[in-house]
């Protein structure tokens, strides 16, 4: 008996995040515009639900954590070596997401040739909204993603700017790793990424391009990460 | 009702792999010996079970895929900000594993400052054995890991050479990401890594140091990855 796809953050097994899939974002960080897609993994323990009582993003003390608003694709039908042609039949829905990133740790990792997993993997670093059924999004290339920090618009970009479209992303990813039901592909962020600090309020939304109403919107409060972990105390 | 920990590869949600945790292995690849632990993520879809009818490692065509035999730690009790002092109470067992690595893709990623996820994440890139109960391993620092390719001994190293011991690894990892039941920590590989080619037979085992019998051993056949994925055809 399979679980409802709506509860994917509770049992889905992987988050595949595409890097630099919007040219303007690649450029704003000083990176080349990619000629092929690439991805990194985030742990599913990094989900922070917009439906929580107090949706919260936790920032490790002293870290420069950036917001990256993204369209999440939720896989329904599993597959491997999926062709771009049949890719959309594997999609069970969409969601609004933030790919929170400790930019300082990512910059260090990039310089050292080390993995991005820590920079991208802290608890609460993948804020995610409710499943949006495919019926509500007939064309995922005709959406606009926006994000505000303390009411100020920071990101506002159309998914039509994606360098690699969803069918190509599914083809690419599934040529490396089998996609399972409940897996999530984060499709990259438009330009305008920037810092989130404790005390900030982050609002974001997704709408059909040109429409006034959002298909989904969510709000998170930013706090300093509590606890006395090795990372937090600077012991490592 | 919780599932039996023995079936962790079927439902566990993350694989955290520690890099360069044996000094001799760090050196053999020309890397500095780390002063702090670091990790990367592998998708759980990369598990290949030693209990399968035909245990197989699939090598993408033309790729230089290396074996890294490792001790896997299986988490039973979940936790966050776990102290080294209490860490061992979270361990539900161990397993023998191989952290298969497309060294060519990893070298490219390191040079380009890009994530390691593809190099480490192909289907079948995490061969894994049966759960070994903690009662069979009173001291995980007193084990020897070995690996043969076509009968020739390639890796043979004691877990006492780990730079960061299991309690420290659990403390470090859980200070970043919550550990859940069924999660796996791969604890790094001793020296002697090398290429696996289609047609090779890979044997590996784990034993108490000085003992003649293995606690667990497993065998995998290496084949070329079938299918017509984007990666396999060189289209990307
Ligand atoms: Mg990585
Ligand atoms: Mg992103
Ligand atoms: Mg390894």
Describe this structure in words.
Chain A has 236 residues and is an alpha+beta fold. The first copy, chain A, has one domain (5-233): Fumarylacetoacetase-like, C-terminal domain (Fumarylacetoacetate hydrolase, domain 2, Alpha-Beta Complex). In chain A, 16% of the residues lie in helices and 32% in strands. Chain A has a five-stranded mixed β-sheet with strand order 2-1-12-6-7. The longest helix of chain A has 10 residues, at 103-112. The N and C termini of chain A lie far apart (44 Å). Residues 232-236 of chain A have low confidence and may be disordered. Chains A and B meet through strand 2, helix 3, helix 4, helix 5 and helix 6 of A and strand 2, helix 3, helix 4 and helix 5 of B. Bound molecules: magnesium ion (3 copies).
Question: Summarize this, please?
Answer:
The structure is a homodimer of 236-residue chains. Chain A is α+β, with helices and mostly antiparallel strands.
Quaternary status:
homodimer
Derived from helix and strand composition plus strand pairing, the structural class of chain A reads alpha+beta
In terms of DSSP E residues, the strand content of chain A is 25-35%
Run of helices and strands of chain A: HEHEEEEEEEHHEEEHEEEEH
Q: Can you summarize the main beta sheet of chain A?
A: 5 strands, mixed
> What is the domain total for the residues of chain A?
1
**H/I helix tally of chain A:** 6
Q: What is the name of the CATH architecture of chain A? A: Alpha-Beta Complex
CATH class of chain A equals Alpha Beta
The small molecules bound here are:
magnesium ion
Tell how many strands the DSSP assignment of chain A holds: 15
What is the CATH topology descriptor of chain A? Fumarylacetoacetate hydrolase, domain 2
Helix content of chain A: 10-25%
Order of strands, widest sheet of chain A: 2-1-12-6-7
Distance between the termini of chain A: 44 Å
Pair of chains with the largest interface and how many residues each contributes: A-B, 45 and 45 residues
The stretches of 5 or more residues of chain A where confidence is low (pLDDT under 50) are 232-236
Mean pLDDT of chain A: 94
Gross morphology of chain A: globular
């Amino acid at each position: 008996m399979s679980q409802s796809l709506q509860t994917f953050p509770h049992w889905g097994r992987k988050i595949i995040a595409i890097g630099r899939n919007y040219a303007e974002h690649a450029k704003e960080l000083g990176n080349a515009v990619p000629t092929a897609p690439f991805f990194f993994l985030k742990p599913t323990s990094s989900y922070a639900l917009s439906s929580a009582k107090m949706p919260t993003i936790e920032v490790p003390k002293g870290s420069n954590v950036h917001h990256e608003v993204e369209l999440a694709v939720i896989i329904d039908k599993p597959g491997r070596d999926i062709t771009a042609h049949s890719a959309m039949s594997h999609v069970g829905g969409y969601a609004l997401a933030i790919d929170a990133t400790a930019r300082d740790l990512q910059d260090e990792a990039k310089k050292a040739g080390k993995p991005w997993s820590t920079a991208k993997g802290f608890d609460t670093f993948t804020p995610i909204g409710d499943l949006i059924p495919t019926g509500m999004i007939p064309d995922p290339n005709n959406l606009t993603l926006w994000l505000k920090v303390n009411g100020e618009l920071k990101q506002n970009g159309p998914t039509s700017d994606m360098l690699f479209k969803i069918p190509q992303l599914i083809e690419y990813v599934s040529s490396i790793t089998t996609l399972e039901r409940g897996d999530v592909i984060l499709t990259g962020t438009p330009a305008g990424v920037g810092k989130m600090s404790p005390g900030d309020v982050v609002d974001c939304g997704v709408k059909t391009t040109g429409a006034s109403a959002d298909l989904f919107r969510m709000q998170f409060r930013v706090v300093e990460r509590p606890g006395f972990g090795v990372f937090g105390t600077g012991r490592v």
